[in-house]
Structure formats: C-alpha cells, structure tokens
C-alpha cells in the first residue's frame, strides 16, 4: 500500500498557493500605493502602524546601493535554490514543502515590485516609543512564515528520529 502524499508536496497545489499568495500580496500593495500616504504613520493599534515606504535593497534595506538587476538576479537565485530544495525534500515532508511554497511566493512578490518599480513597497510597522522594527510587507511575512515552517519541519523530523 502506497503512502499518501501530503497536499503541499504535490506540484499543482503548491503552484495554486503561490499564485494565490502572489495575487493577495500584489492587491494589498496596489491598495497601499493608492490610499496610504507616503512615509506618514497611520496608527492601527498600539505598537502597529501602516507606513508606506520603499525598500531599494533586500531585507532591512541591505544592499540598497546595489544595481537593480543584481538584486533581482540574487532573488531569482534564491527562488531557484528553494525550488531545488522543494524537489530534493522527501514527499512525506509536507510541512517543509508548504514552507518552501510560502518562501517562493514572498520572494516573487518582492521580485515583481523590484521589476516594475525598482523598489519594494513596504507598509507594516511595529514600534514602541523608543524602538521600531523595520517596515515590511505581506511578501516578507510569507517568507518568514515559510522559514518558520521549514524549521518546524526539521524539529519534527528530529523528534521522530529520537523515538
């Protein structure tokens, strides 16, 4: 009897999830561009504001002095590597595959911005009176969730091996 393959270990559901995540990311960024004032905090909750700004680099504005083509190529390399990891990871590890899908979706969301505008649209800001986190977007959140799922999968794998 063959073992059931998890949903996120199958190519078609993964592509559908990536496309849905990309669509939501781009719709939200379009709305941010249309209606959110540039570099003015719109306070939503204590410690949370919407704050439209542009990131010309990669995470935390690193490499913002680099050429756009270099940053796009770097991101495409990362996507290619994650696709390779997805293909190399055993099919039974659906949590890792889901993580890879979210990483790919987030990376493509930011690549689309970089190709179209030359920068990435960021708009979520966590802050206190004395501290603020880097402004980020939904695509960055997808990447973070994806990385967390891959780490969780590794921890679950270690736990299974210890039994």
Question: Which descriptors apply to this entry?
Answer:
globular, mainly alpha, 163 residues, three-stranded antiparallel sheet
What does this structure look like?
The structure is a single chain. The protein has 163 residues and is mainly alpha-helical. Helix content is 58%, strand content 12%. It contains 4 helices and 3 strands; from the N terminus they run αββααβα. The protein has helices spanning 11-35, 68-88, 94-117, 138-162, and strands at 42-45, 48-55, 120-126. Strands 1-2-3 form a 3-stranded antiparallel β-sheet. Strand 1 and strand 2 (48-55) form a beta hairpin. Helix 2 runs antiparallel to helix 3 and helix 3 (94-117) packs antiparallel against helix 4. The longest helix is centred in the N-terminal third of the chain and has 25 residues, at 11-35. It is globular, with a radius of gyration of 18 Å. It starts with 10 loop residues before the first helix and ends with a helix. 31% of the residues are buried. The model has no long low-confidence stretch (mean pLDDT 91).
């Amino acid at each position: 009897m063959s073992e059931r393959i998890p949903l996120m270990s199958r190519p078609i559901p993964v592509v559908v999830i990536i496309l849905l995540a990309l669509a939501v990311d781009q719709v939200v960024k379009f709305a941010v561009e249309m209606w959110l004032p540039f570099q003015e905090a719109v306070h939503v909750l204590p410690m949370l504001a919407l704050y439209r700004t542009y990131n010309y680099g990669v995470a935390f504005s690193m490499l913002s002095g680099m050429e756009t083509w270099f940053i796009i190529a770097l991101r495409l390399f990362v996507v290619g590597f994650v696709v390779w990891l997805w293909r190399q990871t055993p099919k039974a590890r659906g949590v890792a595959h889901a993580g890879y899908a979210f990483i790919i979706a987030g990376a493509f969301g930011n690549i689309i911005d970089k190709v179209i505008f030359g920068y990435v649209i960021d708009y979520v800001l966590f802050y206190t009176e004395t501290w603020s986190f880097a402004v980020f977007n939904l695509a960055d959140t997808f990447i973070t969730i994806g990385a967390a799922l891959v780490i969780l999968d590794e921890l679950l794998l270690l736990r299974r091996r210890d039994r």
